[in-house]
Amino acid sequence: MHTIRPYRINTLFLSDLHLGSSSCHAESINQLLCSIDCKTIYLVGDIVDFWAIKRRGVGLVESHVEVIKTLLIKARQGTKIHYVTGNHDDGLRSLLKAYPFEHGLTNINLCNQCNFISKSGKKYLVLHGDQFDNQLKWDMLSKSMVALNIALMMSYQH
Asked: 2 lies in a domain?
């Protein structure tokens, strides 16, 4: 039987896997992870959906646990993993405040944000983005109020 060798890449970015939620496609995620060999993986927020787990009152199903096992195996084999927290895994943010993981686990860096440096040397900030949710809500409310004000002013002119 011929085994397929993993596709080699430098960096993989994954976000919003929502392990623990019923909408997660864990089998496909695990298939992807098993089909690649990469130096670095950035898990960019909402990887484990603690909100869904709490809401459902059930732990992770086996296929979701398999994704975590695959990631841990990759880390043990030398893949550097940056786990950037998101709003659905905000329990990890509390953990980071209490116990900063300055040195991380073996090849796993748990953080709220980190940097990515491209082959060309450009530096990128990697974060989930939910930090801006409140600002976006206020911006949308502000824009809605301006639009409403304009509409009211125009209706009074006629």
From this structure: no
